[in-house]
What does this fold into?
Amino acid sequence: MAYKNLNLYGQGKITSTSTITIETASAWHFIDTMEADLGVGLSVDVGSQAAITGFADAGGGKVTITSNAHGLTGTTGVVSIVGTTNYNNVFMISNPQTNTFDITSAYTAEAGGGTWRHGTHASISQGQGGTYQYTWACSAISAAVNQTFEFAVFAGITPAIAAVRKFATGTDAGAVAGVSIIQATAGEYLSFAIRNLSGTDNLDIESGTWTIIKTS
It folds into this structure.
């Protein structure tokens, strides 16, 4: 393949022996244990996660999330929310304040609980929208037998085609890999996520790599 823009790329690894804690079955969990080893023209943020302590109706189809000193900034951040009753999904954030931020969702009363995850991501700079190739591979061990996991790259809140892997044993590492061709716009984040379709058993990432290249 001929690449149009070899001065815009990034690569790195998934931190070895990372435990991805699954809080909600079938819900996407952004991974924030990825590292950037090399990057040209792409800004890579390792991401973060923290507990949610409250939900409030912000009006206008918005919900205010309380999470003290969350550290999220800007208006284009993306989080996965898990471990809740009504808000397990992937959201764009808006109106970040010191201890709160908003998501677009119908409000349903719920006490605090759950976790937001701002995954490791590459930011698409102004003027650099276009087609990107995101290649990834990892080996992993499921905490329980016969657990089926999905793995997907996200552009903003939209997942690319997911790779599916069933881990038949709880002791041997299984390999999984994928290549996604993504149309990304300026300001979007390219993130990586997993979900357990079988339950809430965790996944231990033994090793992994990722590469992003702008193709056009």
Summary: The longest strand covers residues 130-142. The two ends are 11 Å apart (CA to CA). The domain at 48-118 is CATH 2.40.30 (Elongation Factor Tu (Ef-tu); domain 3). The mean pLDDT is 89.
